[in-house]
Structures are given as structure tokens and as C-alpha cells.
């Protein structure tokens, strides 16, 4: 059942929240030994919340739009009573969180039921979904393959239909990459749109939080529930609520839709080309727009990522270097040695690049681009061949996502159900126009061009 179906059944008295919760817990117990998407299952908490919702309904009280809907969160979200591990070994020594992350609080205020915390790449510095401490999360369509990272457990849990909604984070592509590999919908909102309060950071100037779901309606439901200012996150917008669910079914005939050219037409496997072609054809998009210096934007995002990440973890690198994933540790050490002049240049370029994108969005409403260059690679794969060049896989999976999150644009990743594996396409809109990206995604879903396939590997 979708989140919308569950909420309707629970609020209408046709299903209890406890039954919905027990069904999710049963699916997790049955399938997560294979998928390895969960690191913590909060069964007692979930049952208590579900019983409270059922009691409110019995008493005639109004329940929220996500009443009884099970959800789970990447384990960098604070969950009261659990150490916030952020995919690491070191963080397990932290005291348990005293309070939930803001987005968990808002989801539960809307009636959702938290059932657990999800596997992720260490400290979110990962595109594969492989974790040396907890093992890899596995792709629900082929368990020998990657989920994508760093929100790999979120992608696996939703792609495997263990929960209808999960929350993750996206710094350089960590919502859009798992969405692509696991064949689900993901929303990376505008930078600052959703609160990051009480979540473990990676790169404060690039970090976003957002939802995963199996259809666009559920994505909008979750996103709308989490909106709103939050003084606990200095980067969070002061804009008021701007609900998207009432708008997603609006016609898209008035929208100016273009295909991103240049960088986004290169470094792609045939399946990525086919996915973009299908989406563009369905939307009648023929206009092609060059995104200037997108490759340079990606390089600048790398500089900012590695230096900010290194600064955050410097004390841990000094005190406990052997407790890091070696691949993460080495990249952070390298980041600590990047000259300040390069960081300064990257930030100056960032301002220029943001202005270029703002100019593009004066003449278009939506850009279409690949989410990943390929479908999910095999677990343990180290390299792949892009445009005839052998390249390290982990570093280049986000080749098409980084230039977009670099300036904080909202994106809906939509799954194109190719055979044998799905792959995602980015629907990119101007800042604060999540409603437009969701409208286009919804139209594509109704046309049957994009859809979350049933898990094939379970």
C-alpha cells in the first residue's frame, strides 16, 4: 500500500495504525536479512505511537495526513534513545540522542510512525551504499548490486517496499543516486527548504534532507509535512508553508521544459541516454539548453566537499584514524591538505555559476538530465568505463548530480523502469519551485513513463 492509501484507511477506520505498523515490521523481519537496509528497528516505539493514533481515532480526534504510515530514516538523523551513528564506528560511542531530528518530529506530528534507522555510507561520504562497519545495503532488484549512496539503506528500504517513505540526505547526490539505482522517487529540495536540525552534518554548505517514496503523491505528502521555518537550523528558510500536493495534478502544458546539454550529454551509458530520451519524448521537450561550466561546477563541489568534510572530522582523524573506512579517511586527509586559495576560487566560481543557472531559469521552467551515468553496478565494483576512459566508480557516480546540488536547486529523481534494471532522470526546477518538479514527475507517472517497479530480487 502507498502512504496515501494507508493514511486514508487508518483515518477512515478501515485499518488500524497498529496493523499498518505490524505489517511493516513483518516485512522488515522477512526481507531485511537480505537487503540490510536497517541498522536499528524501533519496534516498541513504533507500536506505542501506532496505539496512540488508534486511541485518538477512537476518541474522535483529528489525525494527520500521514496517519499510521510507517517510515524510516537514514541513521544520521537523531532518533531519541539511539546514538546517531552516521554510518560510522566512532559515533557509536556517542550518548543516545535526547530528542528526535526536526523532520522526524514533523513526520510524526502528521501521524507517521517511525520504525527504524537505516544503513548509509560512512559519514555520508559515499555513492555506493557499501559500509565497512554494517555491510552493504543491497539493491532490491538484484541483491548482487549496489543501492547507491550515501542514503543506500533509504533507497533499499523503499525500493524493497519495506516502508512506503524514508528520509535521507543529499550533499552531492545521495538522494538522487539511490533513487536511480533502486528505481524509486526521491526529492532533493531547495537548499534551506527543509530543516537539518539534529542531523549529523557532512558539508554544511551543501547538505540537504529529503524524502524517498514509491510514487509522487507520497513524495509530496511527506515533503509538505516537513516544510516550515526552524530556528534550530541557521540555513533553514523563513518562507512559510507552500503545499505541493494540491498542485501536482495541474496540467504541465504551460511549462517550458528543456534538456540539459553539454556536460549532461557526456559520460553516460546507453541506458541513461534511453531514460532521458523517453522522458523528453513524453514531455514533448525538444529544446536543448547548455549549462555552462557544469564540469567545472562539479570540480568546485569536490573541493568544497573534501575541505569542509575534513575540517569537520579533523579531531577524529587525529585520534581514531584506524576506526574510519580507509577510503573515507584517505579522502578526508587529502581534503585537509587542499590549499585555501583553491577553496576561495571554488566559492567565487559558485556565485558565478548560480547566476548562470538563474539566467537559464528565466527562459525555462524545468531541465531534464540523467541522475546517474549507469544502472546499479555490482557490489565491490571499483572502476567503470565512461566515454572510453577507465575511471574510479565511487568518485564518478555523482557526475550528473553534483553540478545541481552545488547551487541548491530542487530536483525530483524519477525512475524509468528499464529492463533488467531501472535508472533515474533528474527533473530540475528553479529555487523554491518544488511544486513544478513534482508536477512534471506526476504527469510522467500518469503517462506510465516513470514508475517504481516491484522489487525483483526478493
UniProtKB/TrEMBL annotation:
Pfam family of the protein (one): Amidase
Domain of life: Bacteria
Amidase domain segment(s): 19-435
Region entry Disordered, spans: 131-153
Biased composition annotated in UniProt, kind: Basic and acidic residues: 131-144
Any GO MF annotation of the entry: catalytic activity
Protein name: Amidase
Amino acid at each position: 500500500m502507498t502512504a496515501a492509501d494507508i493514511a486514508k484507511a487508518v483515518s477512515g477506520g478501515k485499518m488500524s495504525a497498529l496493523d499498518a505498523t505490524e505489517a511493516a515490521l513483518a516485512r522488515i523481519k522477512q526481507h531485511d536479512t537480505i537487503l540490510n537496509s536497517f541498522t536499528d528497528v524501533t519496534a516498541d516505539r513504533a507500536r506505542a505511537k501506532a496505539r496512540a493514533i488508534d486511541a485518538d481515532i477512537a476518541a474522535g480526534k483529528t489525525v494527520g495526513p500521514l496517519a499510521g504510515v510507517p517510515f524510516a530514516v537514514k541513521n544520521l538523523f537523531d532518533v531519541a534513545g539511539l546514538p546517531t551513528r552516521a554510518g560510522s564506528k566512532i559515533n557509536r560511542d556517542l550518548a543516545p540522542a535526547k530528542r528526535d531530528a526536526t523532520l522526524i518530529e514533523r513526520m510524526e506530528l502528521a501521524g507517521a510512525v517511525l520504525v527504524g534507522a537505516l544503513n548509509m555510507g560512512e559519514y555520508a561520504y559515499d555513492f555506493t551504499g557499501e559500509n565497512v562497519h554494517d555491510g552493504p545495503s543491497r539493491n532490491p532488484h538484484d541483491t548482487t548490486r549496489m543501492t547507491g549512496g550515501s542514503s543506500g539503506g533509504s533507497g533499499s528500504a523503499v525500493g524493497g517496499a519495506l516502508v512506503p517513505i524514508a528520509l535521507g540526505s543529499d550533499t552531492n547526490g545521495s538522494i538522487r543516486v539511490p533513487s536511480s539505482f533502486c528505481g524509486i522517487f526521491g526529492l532533493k529540495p531547495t537548499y534551506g527548504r527543509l530543516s537539518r536540525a539534529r542531523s549529523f552534518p557532512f558539508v554544511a554548505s551543501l547538505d540537504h534532507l529529503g524524502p524517498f517514496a514509491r510514487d509522487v503523491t507520497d513524495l509530496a505528502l511527506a515533503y509538505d509535512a516537513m516544510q516550515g521555518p526552524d530556528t534550530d537550523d541557521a540555513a533553514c528558510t523563513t518562507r512559510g508553508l507552500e503545499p505541493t500536493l494540491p498542485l501536482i495534478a495541474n496540467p504541465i502544458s504551460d511549462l517550458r521544459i528543456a534538456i540539459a546539454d553539454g556536460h549532461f550529454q557526456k559520460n553516460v551509458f546507453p541506458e541513461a541516454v534511453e531514460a532521458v530520451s523517453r522522458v523528453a519524448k513524453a514531455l514533448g521537450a525538444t529544446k536543448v539548453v547548455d549549462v555552462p561550466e557544469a564540469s567545472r561546477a562539479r570540480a568546485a563541489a569536490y573541493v568544497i566537499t573534501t575541505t569542509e568534510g575534513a575540517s569537520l572530522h579533523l579531531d577524529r582523524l587525529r585520534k581514531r584514524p584506524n576506526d574510519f573506512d580507509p577510503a573515507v579517511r584517505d579522502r578526508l586527509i587529502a581534503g585537509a591538505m587542499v590549499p585555501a586559495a583553491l577553496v576561495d576560487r571554488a566559492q567565487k566560481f559558485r556565485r558565478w555559476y548560480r547566476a548562470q543557472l538563474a539566467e537559464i531559469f528565466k527562459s525555462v521552467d524545468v531541465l531534464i538530465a540523467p541522475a546517474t551515468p549507469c544502472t546499479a553496478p555490482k557490489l565491490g565494483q571499483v572502476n567503470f568505463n565512461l566515454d572510453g576512459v577507465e575511471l574510479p566508480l565511487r568518485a564518478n557516480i555523482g557526475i550528473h548530480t553534483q553540478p545541481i546540488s552545488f547551487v541548491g536547486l530542487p530536483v525530483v529523481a524519477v525512475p524509468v523502469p528499464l529492463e533488467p534494471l531501472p535508472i533515474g532522470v533528474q527533473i530540475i526546477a528553479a529555487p523554491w519551485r518544488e511544486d513544478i518538479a513534482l508536477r512534471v514527475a506526476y504527469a510522467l507517472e500518469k503517462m506510465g513513463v516513470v514508475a517504481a517497479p516491484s522489487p525483483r530480487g526478493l
